[in-house]
Amino acid sequence: MRILDLSRLLPGPFATLCLQGVGATVLKVEEPGGGDYLRHIPPMVTVNGEPVGAWFAALNRGKRSVALDLRTEGGRTRLLTLCEGADALVESFRPGVMARLGLDPRELVERFPTLVVASLTGWGQTGPMAALPGHDLGFLALAGIFGGGEPTVPRMQWGDLAGGGLVAALRILAAVHAGRGGWLDIAMLDGLVGLQQTQFATLAAGGAPDELLTGGSPVYGVYRCADGGFVTVAALEPRFLEPLARAAAGDLSREALARLFASRSRKAWLQELGDACVVPVLRPAEVAVDSQVATRGLFTPEGFVHPPTGPVWGAVPGLGEHSVDEWGPLTEPVPG
């Protein structure tokens, strides 16, 4: 599967990284002179003796890079030639930009009937907010992800990555497999709303959306231990609830469980209740060295994380490095 990637920053490159995880060859189309903005945003890593943004390196390793100025006739002509050998094209411009460049998705799919054109945006191609700018935090806000309590900024960009990139990869795969081509309107807002099946089902049934699995139950929560570490408790089923109840002398209130876990270290509770759905809350620096994570082989030797679709190896491309042999075969290094 061959993918043309016109996107930049986070959601689109993550989508094509996920496609690499299932074996796709990705040709990244970048603007001459600067390329993807992430190339220049700290923190930096060194690639072939040159500083490159760590986010760019993680999201674009193993891809090929061609420099094209799509504002010129020559750049557009060359892109159309590349479309002839591509299965899908991914772009993340605001609605209408591709048309203004002379690359209207409707015309592309008419000219190339088997080409899948995936337009990944925050709000979608339609609606009163379609032309507005946006970032992950706003997509989360409009989708109701923050629930009914006081909103806090999450660590992860759930809209960009799950609601956007991962959903885009899934829809592109399905469309390419069907072999029918077409234009996909993929919005991070849509993905975030669609992920909340149980929350909105509860609301539709007349219940409160923030109950059992969203912090409403004391036996499904997070507790601080005596050493300052935290554990999560998810003792929903009787076989998990019983050992927790014994340890708590039958008092499963939130206050009693808070006192209980505060009485011993995280390690001690894991030894006693590890088989009762009690799991350590790891700090980011602890994740790669955790025995379960390490056994699963989720990290590269450089410290990058494989996408959820499968391992991705390969060098970080220089800007326009593959402008001559665009679709040439990738040479993937043996995992270290």
How does this structure look, described?
- This protein has about 325 residues and is an alpha/beta fold.
- The chain has 2 domains: about 1-195, Crotonobetainyl-coa:carnitine coa-transferase, domain 1 (Rossmann fold); about 210-280, formyl-coa transferase, domain 3, CATH 3.30.1540.
- It has helices spanning about 10-20, 55-60, 75-85, 95-100, 105-110, 135-145, 160-180, 190-195, 195-205, 240-245, 255-260, 265-275, 285, 290-295, and strands at about 1-5, 25-30, 45, 50-55, 65, 90, 115-120, 180-185, 220-225, 230-235, 280.
- The strands form 3 sheets. Strands 5-2-1-6-7-8 form a 6-stranded parallel sheet. Strands 9-10-11 form a 3-stranded antiparallel sheet, with helices on one face.
- Helix 1 crosses helix 7, helix 6 (about 135-145) crosses helix 8 and helix 7 (about 160-180) packs across helix 8 (about 190-195).
- Residues about 330-335 have low confidence and may be disordered.
What is the CA–CA distance across the termini? 26 Å
CATH class of the largest domain: Alpha Beta
> What gross morphology would you assign?
elongated
Q: What is the number of domains?
A: 2
The helicity comes to: 25-40%
